[in-house]
Amino acid sequence: MNPYIGLALNQYYNLPIYLVGLYYLGLTLATAMGYIFGGYLADFIGRKNAMIISTIMASLFLILSLFNLSLFVAFMFFFNNAYGSANTTAVGDTSDN
User: Fold this and answer.
1) Distance between CA atoms of 64 and 75, rounded to whole angstroms?
2) pLDDT averaged over the chain?
3) What's the Cα-to-Cα distance from 46 to each of 37, 57, 83, 88, rounded to whole Å?
4) Cβ–Cβ under 8 Å, residues 15 and 9
5) Rounded CA gap, 61 and 84, in Å?
6) pLDDT in tens, 40-86
């Protein structure tokens, strides 16, 4: 997450600071849920398939965020972090230690 987004939301878009906090809360929850979901998905269908599905879904929600930013950005963060979880476990599986 970029810390300057909150500044832009508050100063340029005149969003109250409590809504900026709720924005960050929503993204943090989406991040946490994405990591958990990504781990389960990687265990269920394999790391490579989980990374492919997460990439496709994150790309889809990135495109959809052009139409409704507030809703689809959270889903994009969710699938980005699901990818991160599967990627981290895939790297861990390939190490010799």
Assistant:
1) 10
2) 86
3) 13, 16, 12, 13
4) yes
5) 16
6) 998 899 888 999 999 999 999 989 888 877 778 888 889 988 998 88
Burial 15-51, CB ≥16 within 10 A → b, else e? eeeeebeebeeebeebbeebbebbbebbeeeebeebb
Angle at 1 between CA 85 and CA 59, to 5 degrees: 60
Query: What number is the average pLDDT over the span 6-35?
Result: 90
- 3-state SS record for the chain: CCCHHHHHHHHCCCCCHHHHHHHHHHHHHHHHHHHHHHHHHHHHHCHHHHHHHHHHHHHHHHHHCCCCHHHHHHHHHHHHHHHHHHHHHHHHHHCCC
pLDDT of 4 > 70? The answer is yes
